[in-house]
C-alpha cells in the first residue's frame, strides 16, 4: 500500500487488518472529481490485492462525506454539446467499481452525502452515519436523472415509495430518519463514528472467513434479481464447494477450541469484467 500525502485526494491509513480511506477535498466537502475517483479506485484495487487487508472503511475529511460531483465539472458538462460529451474518453473502470470489491466495504458518513456522494455510500455493504449527517439524492434539484444505478439500489434498501420520495423531492434526510428507513445501518455520535466503523470492520476481519464474506456478498447481489428457488439451488451448490475448503474446518475447530479463527486470505484477484457485480 502506497504512502499517503496530506495533499492526496484520498488518504489511506492501515488500522490492523482494516484499510481506512478518507476522501480528502474538505474545502469542497469532498466533492467528486475524476482525479479523486482514480485515486479511490486505485486504492480499492490495492486493497483487493493485499492479503493483509480484510475490510475497508471509507469516510470524508472535515464536514462532508462527499457532496456529489464537483459543481464545476457539472457546469462544464451542462454547457457541452452532445457531440463533445459523446467523444469523452471511456473510464478505465466502471463507476460501480466499489460494488465489485470482494472484501467488506463500510461507509462512515460523517457529513453531507449528496448525489453521487450518496450513491458511493450506497455502494458500500454497511453504512454508519452521524446523527447530523445530511443525505440527499439531489439529482432532481440539479436537473439530472437518477444516476449510477441508484434507481436500482435505493428501492431495495428503503422500498419503492420511499425511494420515490427521496428521488423526486431530493429532500435532506438526517441520521436518525435515515436509520429508521433503512438508508443507514448504525447512527453514532461524530466523535466516535469512525472508530465504531473501524471496530465493526475489525470484527469482520478477525472473526469471519474472507472467502465466506466474498461468496455471501455475491449471493445477496444475485438474489436481488432471482427467485427463492434459484437462491436455494445456488446455496446448495456453493455449500458443497465450501465443505471442500479449509475455511469450514478452521471455523469449526476454532469454535470448539475456543480460540480466534485463522482463516486464509483471499487469493489474488482475477481481472474482473466491467460491470460484473458478483
Can you walk me through this structure?
The protein is an alpha/beta fold and 278 residues long. It has 2 domains: 10-206, 2-enoyl-CoA Hydratase, Chain A, domain 1 (Alpha-Beta Complex), CATH 3.90.226.10; 209-256. The chain contains 11 helices and 10 strands. The protein has helices at residues 34-49, 71-79, 82-86, 116-122, 150-158, 160-169, 175-181, 190-207, 210-223, 228-243, 246-256, and strands spanning 10-15, 18-23, 55-60, 64-66, 105-109, 112-114, 126-129, 134-136, 173-174, 186-187. The strands form 2 sheets. A 6-stranded mixed beta sheet has the order 1-2-3-5-7-10, sandwiched between helices. Strand 1 and strand 2 (18-23) form a beta hairpin. Helix 5 crosses helix 6 (160-169) and helix 9 (210-223) packs antiparallel against helix 10. It is globular, with a radius of gyration of 19 Å. Mean pLDDT is 91; it is low at 273-278. This is Enoyl-CoA hydratase. It is an enzyme of class 4 (lyase). Belongs to the enoyl-CoA hydratase/isomerase family. One of its GO terms (molecular function) is enoyl-CoA hydratase activity. One of its GO terms (biological process) is fatty acid beta-oxidation.
Amino acid at each position: 500500500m502506497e504512502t499517503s500525502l496530506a495533499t492526496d485526494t484520498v488518504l489511506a491509513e492501515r488500522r490492523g487488518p482494516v484499510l481506512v480511506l478518507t476522501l480528502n477535498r474538505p474545502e469542497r466537502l469532498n466533492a467528486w472529481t475524476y482525479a479523486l475517483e482514480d485515486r479511490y479506485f486505485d486504492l480499492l484495487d490495492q486493497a483487493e490485492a493485499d492479503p493483509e487487508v480484510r475490510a475497508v472503511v471509507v469516510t470524508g475529511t472535515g464536514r462532508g462525506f462527499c457532496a456529489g460531483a464537483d459543481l464545476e465539472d457539472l457546469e462544464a458538462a451542462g454547457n457541452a454539446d452532445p457531440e463533445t460529451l459523446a467523444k469523452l474518453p471511456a473510464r478505465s473502470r466502471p463507476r460501480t467499481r466499489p460494488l465489485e470489491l470482494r472484501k467488506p466495504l463500510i461507509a462512515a458518513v460523517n457529513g453531507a452525502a449528496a448525489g453521487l456522494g450518496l450513491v458511493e455510500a450506497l455502494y458500500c455493504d454497511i453504512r454508519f452515519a452521524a446523527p447530523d449527517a445530511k443525505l440527499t439524492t439531489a439529482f432532481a434539484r440539479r436537473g439530472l436523472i437518477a444516476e449510477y444505478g441508484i434507481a436500482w439500489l435505493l428501492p431495495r434498501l428503503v422500498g419503492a415509495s420511499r425511494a420515490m420520495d427521496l428521488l423526486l423531492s431530493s429532500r435532506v434526510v438526517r441520521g436518525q430518519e435515515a436509520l429508521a428507513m433503512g438508508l443507514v445501518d448504525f447512527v453514532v455520535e461524530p466523535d466516535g463514528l469512525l472508530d465504531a466503523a473501524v471496530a465493526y470492520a475489525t470484527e469482520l476481519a478477525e472473526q469471519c472467513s474472507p472467502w465466506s464474506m466474498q461468496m455471501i456478498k455475491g449471493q445477496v447481489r444475485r438474489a436481488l434479481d432471482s427467485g427463492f428457488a434459484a437462491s436455494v439451488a445456488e446455496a446448495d451448490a456453493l455449500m458443497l464447494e465450501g465443505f471442500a475448503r479449509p475455511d469450514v474446518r478452521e471455523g469449526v475447530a476454532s469454535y470448539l477450541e475456543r480460540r480466534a479463527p485463522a482463516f486464509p486470505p483471499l487469493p489474488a484477484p482475477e481481472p474482473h469484467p466491467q460491470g460484473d457485480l458478483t
